[in-house]
Amino acid sequence: xxxxxxxxxxxxxxxxxxxxxxxxxxxxxxxxxxxxxxxxxxxxxxxxxxxxxxxxxxxxxxxxxxxxxxxxxxxxxxxxxxxxxxxxxxxxxxxxxxxxxxxxxxxxxxxxxxxxxxxxxxxxxxxxxxxxxxxxxxxx
Length: 140
Fold this sequence. Notes:
single chain; mainly beta; five-stranded mixed beta sheet; three-stranded antiparallel beta sheet
C-alpha cells in the first residue's frame, strides 16, 4: 500500500511539472493599414499608372516581444511576391512602427486591364510571430 501511495505521489508530481510548464504561445504583433483620403487601405479597382500610398501602423503585442522586421511585398495575379520595401527595426521602432510607401499601379512589366496586384505588409516580432495584412488592386 505504501508503494502504491508513493508511486501515485510521484506520478502526480511529474504530471504537475509537465502541465505547469506549457510554453507560452505568444501573441502576433499588431498591424493595420492606415486609412483616410491619402491611403489605399482596402481592395480597390484603379487605372494603370495611378500613384497610391499604402501606409501601415504596427505595434508589439507583448512587452518583451519587440518588433524585429517589416516587409511590404507585391505580387501580380497570384505569382511569387517581390519585396518593395523592407526594414530591420531598431530602437523605438521595435515598440511601434509606422511607414508610408508611394507606389505606381501596374509597376510590373506588361500589366494590363484585369490584372490583380496584391500588396502584403508583414511585421515579425522577436519570437518569429507574424502579423500580416493584405489588399488587392485590380487594374482597370
